[in-house]
Amino acid sequence: MYWFCTCLLVLAAVLSLGTLAQGHTRRKRSTEIWRVNSVPQSTDRKTLLRDFEPYFRQWGDDSFSGRTSHSSSPALSIHYAKGSYTGWSSNKGGGFYSTPPEVGDHADAMIFMYDVYFENFGFGKGGKLPGLFGGVKGDGAYACSGGSNPDTCFSLRLMWRENGDGELYAYIPPNQESGFADRDDVIAHSSYGQSIGRGKIKFQNGAWNTVLIQARLNSVGNHDGKVKVCNTVQGQAQQCFEAGNLLMRNHGGHHIRGLFFSTFFGGSKPEYGAPNDCRTYFKNFRLKLPSSGSDIVG
Fold first, then answer.
1. Torsion sign, CA atoms 89, 90, 91, 96
2. Where is the signal peptide (predicted)?
3. What is the pTM of this model?
């Protein structure tokens, strides 16, 4: 009997260690390197964005504020005036490029997460949401947007479209794989971003949406880059899609540089204008590094 009990105890210990090891493996599939949960309750841009430093090419001071309308701690709120789009004069959204030092100089895979609340949307014809960016180190990396797509950068933002349909909106090099423009998940553009996976996720007005963007850059000379995009509306199941066989860079010195905060209605024509006076609220920004050798994960 003593021998039998001892064996049971040993077996239980082994099973417990195995469970712990599996949990440890799951936790180590990615490592969080940077987080901003909330911002100060302020309208001063320098105060609001101090935890995003260093940041570059910032615009839209009149749209930024820190508010507690839908959370206990202040979220970064962006105001879009009714009718506003990229050609509007004020209260049309805002943006900046943030390069946290924790990202380093050689990141080829990254997970970016944040929570966004849509207030009084009217999604209209579409608009931009934050994502990742990269390319060379320095000014050349801040150029892939607004119809500019030089060979020094790439950007992987999201867009909302009509009725809250979501997509990956990617400024990537034109030398994609043969047949890229004919893919079922691609709406190709000659001079603007490529629309990938439109409608495979959906954003919801009047609720918190948790966004995940995971990118793994291609090896130079190959079309083997991958992006996974997920959205979870509070209280609902997670929606995800993956886009593979992508080329984000043509040069070995191009890496992921940080997050591209970018949000506005547009499109560059008045027909893209905000249907209502509305706001978004952003909180719980996170950057994670996938573990070495891991594939695209949730």
1. positive
2. 1-21
3. 0.89
Give the number of other Cβ atoms within 10 Å of residue 147's Cβ: 11
β partners of residue 199? none
Domain presence at residue 76: yes
Dist. CA 168–CA 227, nearest whole Å:
9
Provide the sign of the torsion angle of the four alpha carbons 241, 154, 257, 132, taken in this order. negative
Per-residue pLDDT of 224-244, as tens digits, reads 999 999 999 999 999 999 999
Residue 94, domain CATH: 2.60.120.200
- Judging by beta carbons within 10 Å of its beta carbon (0-12, 13-18, 19+), is residue 182 exposed, middle or buried? exposed
Q: Which of 258, 173, 251, 257 is nearest to 219 (CA)?
A: 251
Based on the structure, what is the number of domains in the chain? 1
Domain containing 74 equals 32-290
Do the domain assignments include residue 251?
A: yes
Distance (Å, whole) CA 137 – CA 256: 9
170, two tokens = 């990617």
Contact 96, 56 (CB under 8 A): yes
Distance CA 172, CA 154 (A): 5
| DSSP H helices in the chain | 2-27, 45-48
Query: In 3-state terms, what secondary structure has residue 182?
Result: helix
Residue 279 DSSP label: E
| Residue indicated by tokens 């999604």 | 123
Q: For residues 254 and 83, give the distance between their C-alpha atoms in angstroms, rounded to a whole number.
A: 38
CA atoms within 13 A on the CB side of 144: 31
Asked if 202 contacts 146 with a C-beta cutoff of 8 angstroms, the reply is no
pLDDT tens by residue, 53-98: 999 999 999 999 999 999 999 999 999 999 999 988 899 999 999 9
